[in-house]
Amino acid sequence: MVNPIRFILKKYFFVTPLFYSYGNAAEEILWAAARARLLGSKLVIIAPARYTQILGYNICNSELYNLEFNYQFNTFELLLKHIVSFIVNFIFFIKRLFALILKKYFKIILPEHYYFPQIGRYSYWPAHNINNDGLKHYEEDLIINELSSMPPPTINLSKKTEEVNKFQDLMTQINSKYVCLHVRDQGFHGDSKKRSYRNADINNYIPMIKMLINKGLTVIRIGDASMQTCNLTDDKYIESYDSKYKSELIDLLLIQNCEFFIGMQSGPTEIALLFKKPVHEVNMYNWFFSIPMKPTDRGLLKKLFIPGIGEVNTLSKRFSDVPYKFTNMDIKLSDDEITFIENTPIEILEATKEFYFDYMSGFNRQPNEALVSNKELYKLFAEGVLKSFVSNTTEPIMPIENEVHRLIFRPLISLGTFYCNSSFIEEESTNS
Q1: What is the pTM of this model?
Q2: Cβ(293)–Cβ(409) under 8 Å?
Q3: Which of 172, 420, 427, 430 is the most buried (most CB within 10 A)?
């Protein structure tokens, strides 16, 4: 007799992407889609129900949960999805309510899975339990190849006629190819003091924007109304969030249809990776998270200054000299511990020129000497993370096992390249 539960779990891969986080949700959808393809399953994304939001959280972008993955659901499957969605959201509501009551009235903080559902998370990241077999199991996981070869999702446009018309109207006005730009700044959640090292100044991008406009491209800046004003006025520079064209659907359509994406280590960059767009990251503060993933991706790091270590401006030095805690996303870093030096306007401009030349060549151009392959460095780093976790002796603060899988898998799938360091312009000038 067929077990219906096993049949359903084998045929469908259910996932609840982190509801409130734009970047995490996109990242989790990408990896879940790859794992589902490997398993021969249909990916079923469970969206948060509207009524659950009375418990104090916002949905990052509701259109993310409507993405399509090259297959259709029949009537029975749609009914199944609605039933599972109701059950998951009902349990989520009860658990979150319980957790919030304990937190507010008894100062008891429960684990994260009480606050948000984590269905699928422990299936798409880890293919194996952590052991002492080195990186062999990770490198043999077929998800590494699947992430590179699988097609991007498509946006569900059904019953969205008004927004589609607005997008088409915007494209008519632009009348040229365009690139998307996102610059994370202190307006985001008002975190000027909390995580200022993740931010940058849009006005340092003006020479780059002018260069792209001179190349015949329109630059569309995405984001929200909290963002810093850019001191540039040009018909070919558009701030989409400050217009009638701002919507969750149009945000996704802009990234899906751009020539390439210029961003930082923040949510919109993960959307660009989900849609398989060439990505150019500048002002990067973290050297193993949200890294150049595809062969068409590039990265330019901020320089570091750490007391006792000094200036750190090369990828190899970051891996060899910088303690793990400076890469831990959960640790709040003080200015006394580390200083992140923002990319200068000339560094952003010259790095983007290199990226533009690569784009024009179809990314078949011989790499500039200022570029360095990160594959071997990342392999060494991944081995270090694995050994540290297994031995649990080298670092006082280590992430949970599921996060270790994430820290190992992401570096191993990186096929892009970093600019050697953020001072390569000055180095070239000195050598010439």
Answers
A1: 0.92
A2: no
A3: 420
